[in-house]
Prior knowledge:
- By secondary structure, the protein is an alpha/beta fold.
- It has one domain (3-130): 3-Layer(aba) Sandwich (Rossmann fold), CATH 3.40.50.1000.
- The protein is 35% helix and 16% strand.
- It is built from six helices and five strands, in the order E-H-E-H-H-E-H-E-H-E-H.
- Helix 1 (32-41) runs parallel beside helix 6.
Amino acid sequence: MRKAVFLDRDNTLIHDPGYIHEPEKVVLLPGVGKGLRRLKEAGFILVVISNQSGIGRGYYGEEDFWVVNRRLQELLFPFKVQIDDFLFCPHRPDEGCSCRKPGTELLFRAAEKWKIDLSRSFVIGDKDSDIEMGLRGGCRGGVRVGKAPFETFDRAVDFILSFVEEG
Ligand SMILES: [Mg+2]
Ligand SMILES: [Zn+2]
């Protein structure tokens, strides 16, 4: 069984001006490239789980989600790390689906696909719903970035790695 860090994408890995779907607007947030590399080196699978209600609202299409993901991967090339998988909920909040965070459907789907032990896995996100998904799903912990003491992504990584024994 492997371990993973489940990552929110927008305003956690990349800056989000709101419903981001344009590749030219994709900018990595501080510490993300190096932080992801350190997590990978510590043996974590890196899985993005993203609420994309902009699709359900008709603001953009699923293909735009993937275009932004590809740009994110390009920006990570210099750091010699890549995201292993991207899962997303395309629904609006009022649709009442079970895949929108803090729902756990995508978390469990990823765990089954990648043979992930959730009790050894973590969540990093910028919203309560990100962290709550991890708690509901039995993850070991979650770190909310954007606020002290985890203003930046690399501080969140420091915290997670402090829990993890060598190897
Ligand atoms: Mg976010
Ligand atoms: Zn959904």
